[in-house]
Hints:
Distance between the termini: 32 Å
Structural class: mainly beta
Radius of gyration: 14 Å
Strand order of the largest sheet: 5-2-3-6
Helix content: 10-25%
Strand content: 35-45%
Number of strands: 9
Order of helices and strands: EEEEEHHEEEE
Number of helices: 2
Low-confidence stretches: none
Largest sheet: 4 strands, mixed
Amino acid sequence: MLFGIDAAITTTLGGIAETGSLILWPTPEEPRLMSLIPPIHIAVLYADTIYNNFLEAMTTENWNSEMPSNALLISGPSKTADIEQTLVYGVHGCKELVVLLIQ
């Protein structure tokens, strides 16, 4: 179902100001592949869920007692470079990341 679509929209658990990362918490309704397969990933981030650093996010969200089978930290679109330093987008995930920041 996710293969062949242009974009997917996911919610986020929050963001990390120190690294500019998004925290995704995959569920059966929003599987991990929604941020990996489509070329465009649109993530909804609420401003009041932006934490200063990773430790603050883990502590505030009580990760030590409610950790999912996987959590994702996303800091931008997928990109990689070969030995000749040719940069390629979208090899291991989306080519474009759009963040909708809600105040």
